[in-house]
Amino acid sequence: MVNGLERKLADFTNDLNFDDIPETAITASKMRILDSVGVAIAAFEAKPCKIARDLACEVKGTDTAQIWGTGKRSSLEDVAFANGVMVRYLDLNDAWRTKDAHHPSDYLPAILAVSESFELSGQKFITALTAAYEIMCRFTDNVPFNEAGWDQPVTGTIATALAAGKLMGLERDKLLHSIALAIIPNLSTYQTRAGELSMWKGCAGPNGARNGVFAARLAREGMSGPFNAFEGIFGVWNQTLSGKKFDINLPDFQSPWDWGIEQTNIKTHAVRDSCQLPIFTAIDLKEKLNGKKMKSLKIETYKSAWEGAVKDPELWAPKTRETADHSMLFSVACALADGKVVPDSFEEKRFLDDDITDIIKRCEVIVLDEFSNATPQKRNCRIIATTEDGEKITAHRIVTLEEIKRGMPKAQVIEKFKENTERFYSPAQQNDIIDKVMDIDQNQNLKSFSENFRFN
Q1: Domain range 4-266+408-453, its CATH number among 1.10.260.40, 2.60.120.380, 1.10.4100.10, 2.40.170.20
Q2: pLDDT averaged over every residue in the chain
Q3: Which CATH code for domain 273-406?
Q4: pLDDT tens across 40-86, in order?
Q5: Which pLDDT belongs to residue 2?
Q6: What SS3 string covers the chain?
Q7: 61-65, 196-200, 296-300, 359-363: lowest mean pLDDT where?
Q8: Predicted pLDDT of residue 341
Q9: pLDDT tens-digit profile of 5-26?
C-alpha cells in the first residue's frame, strides 16, 4: 500500500522532462554545478575530505564514477560521499532556508556520478538535478523536521534516490520502493547540528546522498521497501512528527512556477546561511565605526536565525571549525575585526583569538517579532554598536526572497569559482571547466565529465 505523498513524489520525478524546465532554471543549474565544483576543490586538502577519499576503494567496471580532482574511480556510493563531503566541508555551497534549512548541492555530486556511470546526457542530468532540488526545497518549505529534531538528509536521501532512480530508468513502482528504501533505514537526527559541532556536520548530507544512491540501486535490482513509509504505524509521520501529516507543493507543468534550483542562495561567505546577512551588516558597521572603539554590541535578528546560529551556548564560544562557521557571534566578531570571513579565518582558528572572544563577550542578541514575522519574504539584520564615548552607530541590512532568487550574478559565480580553485588549476584549466559546465546541456555523454576536474 502506497500513500498519496509517495506517489506524488514518484509521479513528479518520473514525469519531469528537460523541456518542462525554463531556461532560467537551466542556467541556475549550471551556476550551482560550477559553484559546487569550486567549493569542493577548495576543500580538497581538508581532513574530512581526505578521510572520505581514502575510504573509497578503487573500483573498476560498471556502476563507478570518478572522485573529483583525482583519477580514482570508485563505487557510486563512495563517490557520492567523497565528492559530497568536499562540496559541503567549507560551508560555502548553496543553501535554502524557509521553515527548515537545507543544502541541496550536498546531493549534486551523487546525481552527477550516476549520470556519468550510465553515460547519460547533460540534459538528463539537469532534469534529475532539478527534480531533486524541487523535492528538497518544497519539503523545507512545508515540513518542520528540524524543529522536531530531524536533520536535512531525511529529505535529501529521498530526493537523491528519486533522481538516481530516474537516471537509472526505474519505472514508477520501483521509484516508489526507492523512496521507502531511502527514508525508513536512514532517518538522521538533528544532533549533528546541536551543541559543539564535529566534522560530521559536513558529512551528514553526503551520507544521505550515498544512502539515496544505494536505495535506487536496491530498487533497480528488485528489492521492495517497507510499505506505508510515511503513514504507517511506525512510518515517518508517527516517528518524527507525532503523527501530524504534511503535504508538499510540486509543479503541475501547466502553471508558472518558482523552481527551487533558482531559489537557493549561492553563498558569499564560508558560514551557514543565516550568518551571511550578519557578516554583510557587520562589514557595513565596521566602515561606519571608522576605527572608533566599541563598548557593546546589540545584534537584532529573526527567530530561525537565532535558533540555528545563536541559541546553543557553544555558539558563543566555539571550539571547533564546524561550530564557528555556524555561529552568528563569531561571524559578526570576525567581520568587525578583519573586515571579512574567509576559509582561512577558520583554518587559522580565529575563533580562539582574544580579540574575537572579547568582541563576542560584548554582544547581546535580540529576536524581534517584526523581523521574525517578515521571514521568509524578508530577512533583516540590525547591529547597533555603542562606542566608549556613548555614541550609538547602527547598520541595518535587508535581503528579500526575490533578491535571493535573482541570485549571485554569473560573473560573480565565475569569479568565486576562480578564487576557490586558483591553487589547483591554471587559468586555462579554469576557463576550460567553466566552458564545459556552461555547455553541459549540449553534452550527449557525461561518462568522462569529472575528468575535467582532475589535477593530480
Answers
A1: 1.10.4100.10
A2: 96
A3: 3.30.1330.120
A4: 999 999 999 999 999 999 998 889 999 999 999 999 999 999 999 99
A5: 62
A6: CCCHHHHHHHHHHHHCCHHHCCHHHHHHHHHHHHHHHHHHHHCCCCHHHHHHHHHCCCCCCCCEEECCCCCCEEEHHHHHHHHHHHHHHCCCCCEEECCCEECHHHHHHHHHHHHHHCCCCHHHHHHHHHHHHHHHHHHHHHCCCCCCCECCHHHHHHHHHHHHHHHCCCCHHHHHHHHHHHHHHHCCEHHHHCCCCCHHHHCHHHHHHHHHHHHHHHHHCCCCCCCCCCCCCCCHHHHHCCCCCCCCCCCCCCCCCCCHHHHCECCCCCCCHHHHHHHHHHHHHHHHHCCCCEEEEEEEECHHHHHHHCCCHHHHCCCCHHHHCCCHHHHHHHHHHHCCCCHHHHHCCHHHCHHHHHHHHCEEEEECHHHHHHCCCEEEEEEEEEECCCCEEEEEEEEEHHHHHHCCCHHHHHHHHHHHHCCCCCHHHHHHHHHHHHCHHHCCCCCCHHHHHCCC
A7: 61-65
A8: 96
A9: 999 999 999 999 999 999 999 9
